[in-house]
Protein: Serine protease
Organism: Prevotella lacticifex
Amino acid sequence: MSNLSKYVMGGACAIALTLSSATAIKVFAAQPQVAEAGQPVDLTYAAEKAIPAVVHIKYVQNSKTKTIDVQDDPFGDFFDPFGFFGSPEQGQGGTRKQRVQTPKREATGSGVIISSDGYIVTNNHVVEGADELTVTLNDNREFSARIIGTDKQTDLALIKVDAKNLPTLPIGNSDNLKVGEWVIAVGNPYNLNSTVTAGIVSAKARGLGATPNGIESFIQTDAAINPGNSGGALVNTKGELVGINAMLYSQTGSYSGYGFAIPTSIMTKVVDDIKKYGSVQRVMLGVSGNDVINYINSQKDNGKDVDLGTNEGVYIASVDPDGNGAEAGLQKGDVITQLDGKKIEKMSELQAAINAKRPGDKATITYLRNKKPITKTIVLKNAQGTTKVIEQADIDVLGGQFRPITEAQKKQLNISYGLEVLKVNNGALKDAGINRGFIIQKVNDENVNSIDELQKLVKSASTSKEPVLYISGIYPSGKKAYFAVPLSE
């Protein structure tokens, strides 16, 4: 399961017709049913509750001009010694700048309405990089949508349409789900109204390693989650939202028995933080490790027998000396077994429990050292080492006015992109010594072509471990300059 190509994020899918069902849905009265042992489960109530609240999302990314580094032809100077066929930005050997046009891109996905005034939850990979988002409701009404906030680490996004009295899906507690419990997966992938598949909860707190640096504690189900169903709803028999459909595990790209959803226990925290703070508030435990059973098995493979006093929990491989884990007294070789009195059996459960915390929250950690339990209570800190809640900075923190450079400026300075600083007021730019007329070309090694791109980079940097913008660019005189612009006070 280490081959990441097997994990299919279904947001960007080709238009095709695939309607599947993992089981037949038996029709009874439209109310939640509890089946007796051995009897069929009625899922019609859940379907009727869910279908109106699941939407189709159309994603459009416009064609863009990008400047990339390309390798020079080593024989280029030999065949073209005077540069008749070269571009103005061509270098002598090594690499050169080349402008390329990216094609317009369209994709589709699903989303779930969680409030009657238009808030919709979907996957980050469904909306990331979109220039236009169009939401189609189950009754075929269409709305333009805007992104409120995204979170790559959980692959969740919150978008909004301007509407009232929309149908919603009540949010259930995914922690109460039991393995073997019936659920339905509802999506609207091809603008054909919602499709429903059914299955059971196959596993909980499943970690896959499919998203680097991601927070993974998936609900695994055999309800079919096909490409395009990403962002749709996983619903229990009571008609409650218990997960956001995220991906399938497949060798072929189509459903083959394994689907995964992000539990509402994670979703609720992400949505609340985005609405209140503009970004997800996180704390860092500051440890690395592995499931105890995986560690024991790896040692057996090396011919070593290890007795940690338990086969469950998280084995600690390293501890950041400045992190929360060190403050709790954790050391390499310890085994975390509980957080706030709740049993921790594997790393994905620890990740989910820590993800539910905010800076300044307390946590009681129980761990084994030499098979003996130790319990410590600490105040959790964020990646910047403080207990402050960090709100995303807006572009206004820079204290400047900007515009994309003109064609005349491109020609004069022999550049292909950038933002001109039109005015410098009190703010981060002035403090860093950036003057009017300076053309910003790169921020934190990312090309800057538009004000929207600068805004995204400011927001991203403001909540990172190092809230600094590393800005490079050029003045009208042709002089190049480089600045470090702190965003914190």
